[in-house]
Amino acid sequence: METFFEFFSFSDASIISVTVGAILLTASSAVVGTFTFLKKKALVGDAVAHSVLPGICMAFIISGNKNPLVLIIGAFITGWLSLVIIDGITKKSKIKEDSAIALILSVFFGIGILMLTYIQHNGNAAQTGLDSFLFGKAAALVGNDVITFGVVAVILMLTVTLFFKELKLISFDSNFAKALGIPVKGIDLLLTTLTVLAVVTGIQAVGVILMAAMLITPAAAARFWTDDVKRMTILAAFLGAIAGLIGAYVSYAAPAMPTGPWIVLIISVIALISFFFAPKKGVVSRLYEQRKMQHSMMDENLLKSLYHLGETDNDLFKGRSLNEILSKRYFPKKKLKETLTRLKRQGFLNSDNASWSFTEIGKQKGQRVVKLHRLWELYLSKYMHIASDHVHDDAETIEHIISPEVEAELERLLEYPEQDPHDEKIPY
Amino acid sequence: MRIEAKNSAVEFHDLTVSYHKKPVLWNIDMTLPKGALIGIIGPNGAGKSTLIKAAMGLLPLGSGHVRMFDQDLDTVRDKVSYVPQRESVDWDFPTSVLDVILMGRYAKLGLLKRPRKADKEMAMSCLKKVGMETFIGRQISQLSGGQQQRVFLARALAQEADLYFMDEPFAGVDAATEAAILSIMQEMTASGKTVIVVHHDLQSAAEYFDWIVLLNMRLVASGPIEEVFNNKMLQETYGGKLTVLAEVGELVRKRQIPSREKY
B56 and A228 in contact by Cβ < 8 A? Predict the structure, then answer.
């Protein structure tokens, strides 16, 4: 707890620099990743992330130090190279893109690990900490490093803002963009460059192995909450920043702990929460909608059965026992009782001594369902020429979804018919 | 049968196009008239969409060239609009109807500039023309097939072009939308714009178009509807592919040779 307050009071300059650095890195990769996500190029991000490792090692071997600028340049070269090769393989051979990505990713990463092992066994004192590029180490973001990485991150976000309109267009409809004369190849190249740069800067905080998650997961999570690209991008940046902030704290509180897995874990939890609880698109909200629909179908089926009973005895408002209702239509006992209680609460039914009867609005609602059912049966047999003994099951479903507009249209089209195909009276 | 247009908007000169090295269009050579509603008709795989994609520079040309208003496409691009097939985009993309229509203004806006109020008003009036003004803020994933097509048409209208290439604008739309789209096209041609439409339904083609292009990997006929839309020409277009042409195309693909020799 003490470290918690110590960290979040931001009393130490190094804490501020680590925090600002981590947030900038994660937010900028989330912004760029939004378009990687929208262009359905998630795997490409993963390939780049793994392919920067040999570049970093190469830059270190050649320069002999860990100057971030040099490492970025090295990472940039191999990251780019991997994309060029993937593109070449896809275009020039029979190998499809997914296989090309898998091939290049593993080859480049393999070489990277080989070089890293070589460096570590070479006894160069400056190499300590180079392996933090594998899993990330936000706490290492101090001094000049944070300035370098921070500047790149800001450039990334500014570039996306500047070219937002064009990035959106090529992600949605690149043929139309080409027809407009927009330099689609140039913008594509720009996005690729941004992706590589985002990976290169992000790895300091997250590491090469998990970097792809930092590109894609914030965008995927944000997609659940909004249907607008701009809001989605901002939200992705914000969610990425939260993960970055917590990652920085973990890195500060437990310096031995790699930051990357923590950041990825946090953003994944955020994505999971979005998946389940986002309004409209989330699983919970959809289940709730389904349940509401099921309830309403139960309600209507029950009111319909009561109406049928009333039709048989010519007394619509007579009280009915559970058994009488069940004789008309099967309902699971527990559901039946629930539904009856619900309908009473909503004012559609009266109850007296285990005997249930319509209120006026209950009768109207039941009557409407019966009417819709019979109208639909008539429509099917008259306009779709379906035999009258084949129309019932279909009408059982459709009666619940016909809107008032369609209802009026049906009545007009069929000219307020008296009887359905089974010679039953259609009530109005 | 090839009838030259007197006042031509588009000229295809000896155009050959290949997909993955396999020629799909051979030696298309024709002129299409200004101010006409032009239908490109032919069986599946005839290369109808390929023809207009090639015209818009979306596919590399094996040989030949296309000129519009006697200019290269790049010179007159702001006068030319392209409506892709509805299925070519992901309608789940997180954007609104207004945003899609504003895309028609991007070329006029130029890079790095945002749409202004005038552009939004323009987009609104285009939406009104296609009868969808109440859908302006709607998410595009909520649109029906017919509505998607109307939105694409509105986006094209927002370009204020003189020449329109439309890929299957009547595919998968309801009767009301089809009638609405047709009447907009007729209005456009009446005001001197040229509309070129890839179309697959022969029955309605006879009623809709002034000028017909019959295509089946090669140009069968191009001319005013009353002169080329007859049984003989249709027989030639639909009566099976020229098998030799298809076989030679396959040979070209296998040997990976370019459609014109280069040294």
Answer: no
